Amino acid sequence: MDHGNVGGLGFLAPAPGRKGLLSWIGTTDHKRIGLLYMGCVGFMFFCGAALGMILRLKLMTPGSTLVGPQTYNAMFTLHGVIMIFLVVIPSIPASLGNILLPLQIGAEDVSFPRLNLFSWWLYVLGATLAVVSIFTGSGAPDTGWTFYVPFSERTTTNVSLAVTAVTILGFSSILTGLNFVTTIHRLRAPGMTWTRLPLFVWSLYATAWIQVLATPILGITLVLVFAERVLNLGLFDPGRGGDPLLYQHLFWIYSHPAVYIMVLPAMGVISDIIPVFARKNIFGYKMIAFSSLAIAFAGSLVWAHHMFTSGMSDTAVLVFSFLTFIVAIPSAIKVFNWVSTLYKGSISVEPPLLFSLGFIFMFSVGGLTGLVQGAAGTDIHVHDTYFIVGHFHYVIFGGTGLGMFAALHFWLPKIFGRMYDRGVAKLSFWIILVGMNVLYFPMFILGLEGLPRRYYDYLPKYAHGQVLSTIGSWILAVGLVIMFANLYRGMRRGPLAGDNPWGAATLEWTTSSPPPTNNFEVEPVVTHGPYDFRGVARHE
Amino acid sequence: MSHAQNESGSHPLSYRFLAAIWAALLTLTALTIFAARIDLGFFNVVAALGIASIKSSLVIFFFMHLKYENRTIKTMVLVAFVVLAICIGLTFFDVGFRR
Ligand code: HEM
Ligand SMILES: [Cu+2]
């Protein structure tokens, strides 16, 4: 076995025995599996983004242009399914979480390395089926990513295969969660107490619990849809004696917690990055760790805020509206703590910090507009309009997306041992930030003016906002291309980054870049907290 | 490390005991069918869920050895059930009050 950092390639060096492709798709090394995920997620992100660009291009002009209405329906469905289930949910936990969790707690690998590989294979299987569902059967699914009944049970498009794919993806997510919970409980290095865990690990822990507890409900629900389509049962379809609201309950019992699967890991990333670039201990460590768990728990109590106009009982509307406001509290705790950490810090504005600040801004806009929707009265007005589309793109793309980009700029030098061009990274950040806001902010106004979402055509009075939004999508695309090109170039040909380019204090920075196959030469012993920078210097 | 090693496996259960649990499960299944045939109104659901909970408890505690696990594992399983109970419970704010 090779424990050393041969040729400075660490775990990236060809391992003895298996060669080439097989040493990747058959690996049990959590770092390699993480990179497999990263590659797949990156590819799917490209596909989803391309679909989004085409949708935006169509929406620039009213009337029948570019694509037909049926194609349009299929395209927004695919855009949603790909982005939610294949990109955002696995993005941070399955790729960077996989790579960093064992490194951050001083372990050699996750608890169940083979199960980890199996999760990735399930992901690949699910992704393949999702793609196959587009081209087989009688037409690509056209239901929206939410698969609402009764339409999803009556449409002749290939919904059966699509829900099968999503169920399989769900299992991949559950198994990753299970692996992470076990790893965090059992494999912490000596001295790594619960209050010395990096906050990224805490956020992965909370996320993993949601994955384990909530995802089975999605699986069961979609199996029921499948069964109803194939066996003609009467579970959800009122025409066959079913209850369509039951479907909405079950779907959102998973899918609201799922939005926290998406955003919690990003919050963890931000909590890890900010202290490093403020050279200060994090403000309120315990509150941030606790608020992750609080979000995970409270987030499972609010699902029916997606159903205020669905015809459920008024009592339920009242109760869920109230509960929704409670979730905002732990989210706000985090935002205030990040800002307090920056206060009087000695701040160095490096790319990871910029992306983190972008996260805070975008997440705040998204979270506050969430409250507009959480209040039942105002939601009656904005439900199913572009306001909602604005809201979730701010939280998901502005939040999770920027969080992922921050994480890439922070940790890629660790993973590949090479540094990208920081000037270009900053430039790309500003272009992306401007692009996102030009793209998504007009949606709030369009929504308040009453433009419904998922409509192929619109009245001429909405044209201005639509054009502006489409221009935003071009700015954003330019920024993304620059950013990814810069990261890719850095990863391949950038100058060597050194073991600890940012002067961070968590364990992953104590090993070499890239880390060796077994992560650490000797088992680390932890003697200080994750944000205790005394005696930690930058090594470039 | 902070947790004791997993001790399951060191508590072999006798066939007799396992058979008794199995018999209890079958009896409860019969009870479910019986309860579904009489009209208790809203309480039909309560009865069905109640019996199902007892059955799953038996499976989890004895067949799956939860009874012999440490506190951490027990708490984790409990959390899962509390969340499930809350999800089902909150749904009744809709179902129970629909007009
Ligand atoms: C922090 C507080 C948040 C609140 C109060 C909130 C509230 C809401 C409400 C009430 C809706 C339903 C609106 C409607 O359909 O009429 C909604 C939709 C949505 N939210 Fe949030 N939200 C919050 C954060 C988030 C986060 C962090 C994410 C994801 C990372 C997210 C993702 C979504 C998505 C995807 C939808 C649209 C689902 C659909 O119908 O397709 N939200 N939000
Ligand atoms: Cu929600």
The rounded Rg of chain B comes to 17 Å
User: The CATH topology of chain A, please?
Assistant: Cytochrome C Oxidase, Chain A
CATH homologous superfamily identity of chain A: Cytochrome c oxidase-like, subunit I domain
- Give a quick account of the main beta sheet of chain B: strands, pairing sense, barrel closure: none
Strand content of chain B: under 5%
Alpha-carbon distance between the two ends of chain A:
29 Å
In short:
The complex is a heterodimer of chains A (540) and B (99). By secondary structure, chain A is an all-alpha fold. Chain A is 66% helix and 0% strand.
Would you write up a description of this structure?
The complex is a heterodimer of chains A (540) and B (99). Chain A has 540 residues and is mainly α. Chain A has one domain: Cytochrome c oxidase-like, subunit I domain (Cytochrome C Oxidase, Chain A), CATH 1.20.210. Chain A is built from 15 helices and no strands. Chain A is globular. Chain B has one domain (15-96). Chain B is flat, with a radius of gyration of 17 Å. The interface between A and B is medium-sized, with 22 and 19 residues. Protoporphyrin IX containing FE is lined by residues 146, 259, 262-263, 305-306, 324, 327-328, 331, 367, 370-371, 373-374, 379, 383, 388, 391-392, 395-396, 399-400 of chain A.
